[in-house]
Each structure stands twice: as C-alpha cells, then as structure tokens.
Amino acid sequence: MDTTRLIIVAVGGQGNLLSSRVLGEAALLSDVPVRMSEIHGMAQRGGVVESAIVFGDSDSTIISDGEADVLVGFEPSETIRAINKCNSGTVVITNLSPLPPFTVAIGKGTYPDLNEVQGLIRAKTANLIAFDAADLAKEAGNVMSVNMVLLGALIQTDILPLTADSIKEIIKTKTKKAFVDINLKAFDLGFSTAKEIG
Questions:
Q1: Would you say the pTM of this structure is higher than 0.90?
Q2: What pLDDT is attached to residue 43?
C-alpha cells in the first residue's frame, strides 16, 4: 500500500488530537495501516499542537521536512509555520480564522497578513484549500467544531485512503453524544466547501 503522510497543526484547544484520533480509528476500521505521533507544546495554554499521521506501509511516524503529502492547519499562522514540511506536490488545507497569540494582543508582535500567508503557501505547494472554518463551525452549531469542518475538507480531497462514511462512523462513536449531530453537520459543510474550492 502506498504511504501517505499527513501533518495537522493547531493551537491547543482547537481539537487537533480528537481529529487525529478520529482519523486513526477510521484507518483501523478500514484495515489501513496507520502510525501516529503528537507534539504538545503547552497545549492547554494555546501553544502549538502537531500531529503526524502516516497511512500505509511505514516503519516510522517521523515526517521530515519536505515529506508531507498533506498539511492541515487549524490556524493560519501555524499553517505557515509548518510549511517546511511541504513540497511542490503537497496539498494544504487551512482555516483562515486567526487566533492571534497574546504577544499580538499586548502589542509585542504582529500577526501575518492572510493574503501573504496564502501567497507563500501557493508558491511552495501543489494546491491550497483555504476558507474560514470557524464560520462553518458556527453554522453547524458550535464554533468548537472547526476540527470536524477541516476533517470534511481533508476527506473530500481523496488524498487519504479513507472514506467519508468511515469517518462519520467514528464521529458517531467517539465524540460526545451531545455533539454528534453538530460534528456530522460540520464535517459535511467542510466537505462541500472544499469541493467548491477545488
């Protein structure tokens, strides 16, 4: 089986780890070999959280610079920070709703221009799917469902050896009952939006 390397980057509290767990469980459900690793950088305090997931035959979860087939960014500045993992064939999916760090709020830093961020990503990679996932999550019923919106966008690309049905099955069984319908709606909104963007 071909190997597909996925990097997910987010700010602590955005649901990166749940997304990774859903993907991992869906791979197991589909008999797809999968290996995962996570880096937690002060996740509870809004620090970076990075997941590396390798689908297919591989002995390692390490995704070196230039090796990612797909990068999913839950926050635009984290997406650009992880761009070194990409190459000219990488597909990038990013949320365009920023969560500026406290240094920006206190005037000690500046947040990157979103148009410049998108330009830099487009110049280095094969395809950029960029949209405001927070708006879609709100439309689904909970702004915390950004992770499910981005999962929908990811699955729509057909890069991973997983189906929408397998992901939805895991969403139904692995997320809190009170959020299942919202999460499924968020997934569908992300899927259809990514399809429109292409």
A1: yes
A2: 47
Question: Which residues, 6 or more positions from 49, have their beta carbon under 8 angstroms from its beta carbon?
Answer: 9, 10, 11, 12, 14, 16, 17, 38, 39, 40, 41, 43
Q: What digits encode the pLDDT tens for the residues 134-167?
A: 999 999 999 999 999 999 999 999 999 999 999 9
Q: Does domain 4-197 have CATH number 3.40.920.10?
A: yes
Q: Residue 22 carries which side chain, given as an amino acid letter? A: V
In angstroms, rounded to a whole number, what is the distance separating the alpha carbons of residues 92 and 105? 27
- State the Cα–Cα distance between residues 60 and 62, nearest whole angstrom: 5
Q: Point out which residues pair with 152 in neighbouring strands.
A: none
In angstroms, the first-to-last Cα distance of the chain is: 26
Name the residue ranges covered by the structural domains of the chain.
4-197
Nearest to 167 by CA among 30, 11, 62, 46: 30
Give the pLDDT of residue 39: 77
Q: Are 171 and 34 in contact (CB under 8 A)?
A: no
